[in-house]
Amino acid sequence: MRTTVSGITSRILSSNATVFVLLAVIFAVVFALNPGFAEPMSLMAFVKKAAPLILLAIGQYFVIVSGEFDLSVGSLVGAQVVIAALLIDGNESATLPVILLMFAGGIVVGLVNGLVTTLLKVPSIITTLGTMLVLYGAIRWLTGGAPTGSLSTAFRAAGRQGVDDVPLIGQLPWALLIVLVVGVGAVFLMRSPWGRTLIAVGDNDQAARFAGARVWWVKTAAFTLSGFLATGAGILIGGYAGVTAQVGEGMEFTAITAVVLGGVVLGGGRGWVVAAMAGALTVEALFTLFNQLSVPSTVRPAAQGLIIIAAVAYAAIDRARRARTVTETHPTPRHTDVATP
Amino acid sequence: MTAPLLTMTGIQKSFLGVRVLHGVDLTVRPGEVHALVGENGAGKSTLMKILAGVYTADAGTVTLDGEPVRFGHPAAAQRAGVSTVFQEFNLLPDRTVAENVYLGREPRRRGMVDRRRMVADTRRLLEDLGVTGLSARARVRNLSVAEQQIVEIVKAMSHDARIISMDEPTAALAGREVALLYRLIERLKQLGVAVLYVSHRLKEIFDLCDRVTVLKDGALVDTSDTADLTTDDLVRKMVGRSITGFFPPKLPGTALGDVRLRVTGGGNTQLDGVDLSVRSGEIVGFAGLQGSGRTELAHALFGIAPFTVGRVEVDGEGARIRSPRQAVRYGIGLVTEDRKTQGLALNQSIAANARLVLDAVRPRSAGRAAKAVPGLLSSLELVARGHDQEVRFLSGGNQQKVVLAKWLVIEPRVMILDEPTRGIDVGAKHAVYTLIRELAAAGMAILLISSELSEVIGMADRIVVMRDGVISGELDAARLPADTAEETIMALATGQNTGAAR
Q1: CA quadruple B322, B328, B333, B339: dihedral sign
Q2: Beta pairing partners, A170
Q3: For a FRET experiment, which of A217, A290, B84, B350 has its CA 20 to 30 Å from that of B372?
């Protein structure tokens, strides 16, 4: 494995090119319609808005690449924000303990999702649908429709503040730094033995088990990471958008759309985490484009639905086509390994 | 001599350019029980499936009662009176016996299913066959395997079957149930129905069948009256092949060392009383028919379906192996029988597959140890575009090399190879044999499971023959006379002691 720039470029150009092209095209259209959007300040604002979805997409990527789904993350984000507001209630000194508690809660939800799926053999789509409904109910019960309490300034800093007085861009948002750190971490994680095992488990869990992998543990870790990152997304979104009973609603599907748009195959075993992140940026950019075209926000779910179907159909067609060309050219390998005496 | 009911002449069939049937002839007379025998891969199943309309022959003719027929679909064969009872039953577990028998062609009355008539007709068919104690209203899920088989036969009879072919009908039956099947087949004979009986069990063939057709390597050996044959004759016809000089000789310096793997009294639901020891540098071959317990033994040793009783020792140390992961920890590797579903993550790269065991079991040292992978793949003479190519695009032989590399990189102490040369070409086979010799020379203990007798005889130091989950015999390969080796093994595998009394 090469870590060189050319290696990454070739990877972008090879299998996952589509999402990057799409991202570039959408940005080009947005810039053409509104040249002001290309200003560093606007771009940074866009990053703040997109950051929670990127974190969710990374978490969802781990789960999907292992062959499962996590539908609970949207409700988890909502529950985290509402509960945080309830507990902090404007008290600055409560910020850190509550954040730690939130992460613990996210990890517990992920562990439950993972263990129920792997040990009790409940399909993850059902397990996480269950946790999604439980958390959704919990939000309704706690808020009665209107959340009480408020977040502290320190809590909201992660989502809306940044390093000020940076030349050229003005403010470097914390959200951008967080996304970069998590993104780089995710890339390294996928290159680690755990990540390699995870993707093999998603491809063929029996072969992975016969190779000595603890399938239940590897998958549970993916769900746990998803819960952890959903917590991160909750902190960012709470800071950026504030507290409402609707926070996080539908975000699980937006995250799945993003991951699928990134060329990650549902069912597991294929896909690149960077492409999943690009998928999240693309979805966010598309929503921005809709805003500029004054498309009513009510159209969003329909657009999202069409995107997810089109992306999966495209991937299936593309994959079949590539399989055909490779099989045809197979008899003449370009490169042969020969034993060296 | 009565006119034949069914005549198959010059049947040929190829799959992906590989000829599996080379012009086979078969005649079946009305009311006879006709055995179709041969080793694994001789072409019995393919011939059966052509008769059943599952496959269509590339060449040759089939006539039924002198009329040429050509079945494009199993339903067409059934309508013509040719029914097949496969090893895997085609039954809906939550429907009743009658509903299964008349599935898709239920008798109707005023547009609704006439249940009463369906049940009555099924009862009559059961009575015709002399079956008592099986209700037409019973749910198939609650029936034993033997009873489900009866339902399949009743289904065939409801189509007015004139010939029923049965694929290994006793494979899943207990002794008492076999007697029931015998009676049923007798009854079918009385009704004038011909039975084409595919089985590995020689005893049944001599008990039940009037004539035997022997296939070998996709070609007809001959057809003869069972009464004119001895078991010795039949076994010789099935195997009679000389071992070529295809197998590389033992490498100089290969020495039998201490016992690396020992099993004492090993058993689980599939295996019973397994006593086994394999020494360092030794290749032990495992022969037996399909379902004789060879793969189950491999799975037990590897912790997939562990032993529930008995003791396993690796290098003299007691080993409690409850999962593949623990097996790997004890230095045991398993090349599975089914490469694609159990051996490889097909969408991943060669490199990723080759280091999977390291990643999964030894994450801390995986990075360092994986540096050996490229060299290992080169020494296996892997042919690929590069190590980032997905393994699904490789040929069977090259895929198998990736599987082997995956295990070799952890330097196992015991290597279990389950059908390591299945579905790979001759060149790759030779490479695998050479590798096995090298591993033995390096002091590994090797368990070689194979359905190809010549492979077991050509490679193993010692041959363990299995039958019905137990070890039915052990042979020293060096003392085995070459001309009768295969027959001796087949006799142990089928439960027929040639020469000596049973």
Answers
A1: positive
A2: A166
A3: A217
Q: Which residues of A touch B327 (CB under 8 A)?
A: 212
Is A199–B346 a contact, with Cβ atoms under 8 angstroms apart?
no
Closest alpha carbon to B234 in B495, B487, B502, B501 = B487
Residue B236 contacts residue B256 (beta carbons within 8 Å)? no
Say whether residue A151 is in contact with chain B using an 8 A CB cutoff: no
d(CA B20, CA A15): 39
Q: Grade residue B41 by pLDDT with cuts at 50, 70 and 90.
A: low
Determine, for residues B341 and A327 on separate chains, whether the beta-carbon distance falls below 8 Å: no
CA nearest to B332, candidates B354, B361, B363 = B361
**pLDDT tens per residue, range A288-314:** 998 888 888 788 788 888 888 888 788
A207 vs B344, B382, B383: nearest CB: B344
Question: pLDDT-derived band of residue B489, with 50, 70 and 90 as boundaries?
Answer: confident
Please report, rounded to a whole number, the percentage of residues in chain B having pLDDT higher than 70. Answer: 95
CB distance B355–A196 less than 8 Å? yes
For the question of an ipTM over 0.90, the answer is: no
Whether A304 contacts A254, CB under 8 Å: yes
Shortest distance between the Cα of B58 and any Cα of chain A, in A, equals: 25
Domains in chain A and their CATH numbers? 10-322 (1.10.3470)
pLDDT band at A203 (very low <50, low <70, confident <90, very high): very high
Please name which of A27, A31, A29 lies closest in space to residue A39, comparing C-alpha atoms.
A31
Positive or negative CA dihedral for B321, B323, B327, B330?
negative
Domain extents in chain B: 6-239, 263-331+415-495, 338-411
* Nearest CB to A330 within list B344, B357, B393: B393
> Is residue A234 pLDDT above 70, yes or no?
yes
Domain B6-239, CATH class in plain words: alpha beta
What's the rounded Cα separation, in Å, for the pair A183 and A232?
A: 13
Fold match between B6-239 and B263-331+415-495? yes
Query: How far is it, in rounded angstroms, from Cα A139 to Cα A148?
Result: 11
Tens-place pLDDT, residues B101-149 = 998 888 888 888 889 999 999 999 999 888 888 899 999 988 888 888 8
pLDDT in tens, A160-199: 888 888 887 778 899 999 999 999 999 999 999 999 999 9
Residue to substitute from B335, B346, B348, interface A, most A β-carbons within 10 A: B348
